[in-house]
Amino acid sequence: MVKSANFSADGQRIVTISDHKIARVWNFSGKQLAELRHPSQDRISSASFSPDGQRIVTASGDARVWDLSGNLLTELKRDRDPVHSASFSPDGQRIFTVSWNNNVRMWDLSGNLLAELTNRWCADYGIVRSASFSPDGQRIVTALGNKVACVWDFSKQLVVVLKGHQNREVNSASFSPDGQRIVTASDDNTARVWDLSGKQLTLLQGHLEPVKSASFSPDGQRIITASEDKTARIWRVEGLDVLLARGCDWLKDYLATHREARERLKVCKRK
């Protein structure tokens, strides 16, 4: 069963994890390139590429950094509470881990602990399942175990709560490459795309079982999802500019005869 799948920065590689305590690296044609085997008794719960696509960080109780051939580079010492999520910072020089006790820790690439954030973000919404930074490093989105994802600015002030998944856990949340959208994956068998105000833009339906992860491709035009239905799917999504242009096109006849509406929708005048 595929539990997670993520693109490399150039879009040419994908890393997947399954129930077998192994992460696998593939090319875009589906050929397996490497296996990453944790000695831990825990299953691998997350795997993602560094921004330059040359390293992979995995979480399985502890966190480990690998090269693309499957060689172990760094081990991040196991916390008192096991790590379930790990990812690189936008500049690739730091690694962020999330533990089952909602602690977020920052490490350097040598495995030295740099900072520890123990604020129980969005505590009313359950356990933090994943944490991902925006491309500019100014925001963080956390996926919570109770139906929502929370977006924070860099000073840990809550910006918006993403609500819409149907009474099921949110398993992952991550930003688009331009930082303007967020994709979430949930046990309600869907993935959803949001803008930064918390408005739902797109609903991705088709998986038959809970969706465990969802992430954008480097060009922001595709999303890859991994589900308990033993499949990973690639979806084509349109950017905000394309959606806006289409909406204005749909409204052009109406706007031509309704001047008041045309004045209010000034954004369509620029199209």
Automatic annotation (TrEMBL):
<feature type="repeat" description="WD">
    <location>
        <begin position="163"/>
        <end position="204"/>
    </location>
</feature>
<dbReference type="InterPro" id="IPR001680">
    <property type="entry name" value="WD40_rpt"/>
</dbReference>
<feature type="repeat" description="WD">
    <location>
        <begin position="204"/>
        <end position="245"/>
    </location>
</feature>
<keyword id="KW-0677">Repeat</keyword>
<dbReference type="InterPro" id="IPR036322">
    <property type="entry name" value="WD40_repeat_dom_sf"/>
</dbReference>
<keyword id="KW-0853">WD repeat</keyword>
<protein>
    <submittedName>
        <fullName>WD40 repeat domain-containing protein</fullName>
    </submittedName>
</protein>
<dbReference type="InterPro" id="IPR020472">
    <property type="entry name" value="WD40_PAC1"/>
</dbReference>
<dbReference type="InterPro" id="IPR015943">
    <property type="entry name" value="WD40/YVTN_repeat-like_dom_sf"/>
</dbReference>
<dbReference type="InterPro" id="IPR019775">
    <property type="entry name" value="WD40_repeat_CS"/>
</dbReference>
<feature type="repeat" description="WD">
    <location>
        <begin position="76"/>
        <end position="110"/>
    </location>
</feature>
<dbReference type="Pfam" id="PF00400">
    <property type="entry name" value="WD40"/>
</dbReference>
